[in-house]
Structure formats: C-alpha cells, structure tokens
Amino acid sequence: MKETNNLDLNVEYMKTSDLDQVLVIEKEAFNSPWSRNAFKKEITKNRYANYFVAKNEQEVIGYIGAWIILNESHITTLAVNPDYRRQGVAKKLLITLFGRLVEEGVNKVTLEVRVSNQSARRLYTDYGFDEAGIRKNYYQDNKEDAVIMWKTLKIK
C-alpha cells in the first residue's frame, strides 16, 4: 500500500487523456477488462454516461462510471488501484457520483457485482445498496452469477 498521509484526492470527469492510467487499473481489477475504445466511446459518444476519475495529484487512482436513463442510474464500473484500496477512494467516487445523480433527478441506482466479490458487496451495502436478486451466468469470462443491487437516493 502506498503512503497516503499526503493523499491529494480530487475527483473530476474522466477525459481521454486519463485513459492510459485508467486502463492500467482496469487490467489489474478485472478478468475481462474493457478496451480503450469502449471507455472512449462511453466518455465521448454515450450521452447517458457519466464517468469520473479520482486523482492523487496527477495520478489516476480510481474511476467510476454510470448511465443515467430517466430517473434511474446504472453503475457500469468502479475500480481503485490496488495500492490505494481501503483508503476512501471508492467512497469519494460513490459520493461524487451520487451528488451528480441527485442533480439530475435520479432516485434509483442499480449495479451488478460478482457473487464472489465480497469486498465490493460490503462496500455497496455500506453505502445503502440492497441485494435484490441474482443474474445467472452473468459474467462471460467464467459464467459466474451476479448479485443485482439497488439503492434509493433522496432527491432534494
């Protein structure tokens, strides 16, 4: 784990210039990582997409993405550099995303997470998500089931 006493955490919208660093984290975090082209399409062409990066100074150390469709949102991805896990980075990303969603009038958020990913399931539960069901054989790489989770946001 990296020393974080001097962590200068800033969250901002993901840009194409962030993609080199995002892809390093993506490859470390996921068995079936997204391609550069997939991220680029999300941040430049998908009008429903909202993607953020967490940076320590200029280093991308985490990211989150979600789609907003009407009054609902679907979190498509969340990952943190292993050197910075359990230090509030995912929390900051989620809180930033929730703020954006509330601004847009979103009151429901959903996501899927691998059944085996206990740490992610705990994180989401800690931030108000409830487990609502299972998608059988959801993940293409190994046919693992996904837990469907939902959260209700309070609109101002």
What do these coordinates show?
This protein has 156 residues and is of the alpha+beta class. The chain has one domain: Gcn5-related N-acetyltransferase (GNAT) (Aminopeptidase, 3-Layer(aba) Sandwich). The chain is 28% helix and 34% strand. The chain contains four helices and seven strands, in the order E-H-H-E-E-E-H-E-H-E-E. A seven-stranded mixed β-sheet has the order 1-2-3-4-5-7-6. A hairpin with a 2-residue loop joins strand 2 and strand 3. The longest helix has 15 residues. The protein is globular, with a radius of gyration of 15 Å. The relative contact order is 0.15.
Describe the SSE topology.
Layout: E1 9-13, H1 19-29, H2 36-44, E2 49-56, E3 59-69, E4 72-80, H3 89-103, E5 108-114, H4 118-126, E6 130-135, E7 146-152
Parallel strand pairs: 4-5
Antiparallel strand pairs: 1-2, 2-3, 3-4, 5-7, 6-7
Give the CA-CA distance, first to last residue: 38 Å
Largest sheet: 7 strands, mixed
CATH architecture assignment name = 3-Layer(aba) Sandwich
CATH topology descriptor: Aminopeptidase
Instruction: Estimate nothing, just give the exact number of structural domains.
Output: 1
CATH superfamily: Gcn5-related N-acetyltransferase (GNAT)
Low-confidence stretches: none
Q: Give the C-level CATH assignment.
A: Alpha Beta
Helix coverage percent of residues?
25-40%
**Strand-residue proportion:** 25-35%
The number of helical segments is: 4
What sort of overall outline do the alpha carbons produce when their principal axes are compared? globular
Total count of strands: 7
Average predicted confidence as pLDDT: 92
Radius of gyration: 15 Å
- String of helices and strands: EHHEEEHEHEE
- Strand order in space, largest sheet: 1-2-3-4-5-7-6
Secondary-structure-derived class: alpha+beta
